[in-house]
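**User:** I keep going back and forth on a fold encoding question. It is easy to fool oneself when nobody else works the same problem. Could you pick a protein and write out its sequence and tokenised fold? Could you put it straight underneath, so I can go through it closely?

**Assistant:**
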Amino acid sequence: KEQKMNIREYLDMTGLSPAQFSSLTGVCQQSIYLYLNGKITPRVWTAKKIEKETKGKVTVKDLIPDYEAP
């Protein structure tokens, strides 16, 4: 079974700041903070960008638990 990881855990593991993660993923800083605080869930295309940039450590399913791939 795959280990789930959220953005905060990824930042802790890598030592990246939210601002650095924003630059890496191309997702605006405000959105990163909203995801970190559980205020909003990213859209699928954003979650896919995050999954790609984290090399699969944070997956779409981690970010959007009820996501079903088409």
In short: The chain is about 55% helix and 0% strand. Helices lie at 7-14, 18-25, 29-36, 44-53, 60-63. The chain has a mean pLDDT of 93. The two ends are 21 Å apart (CA to CA).
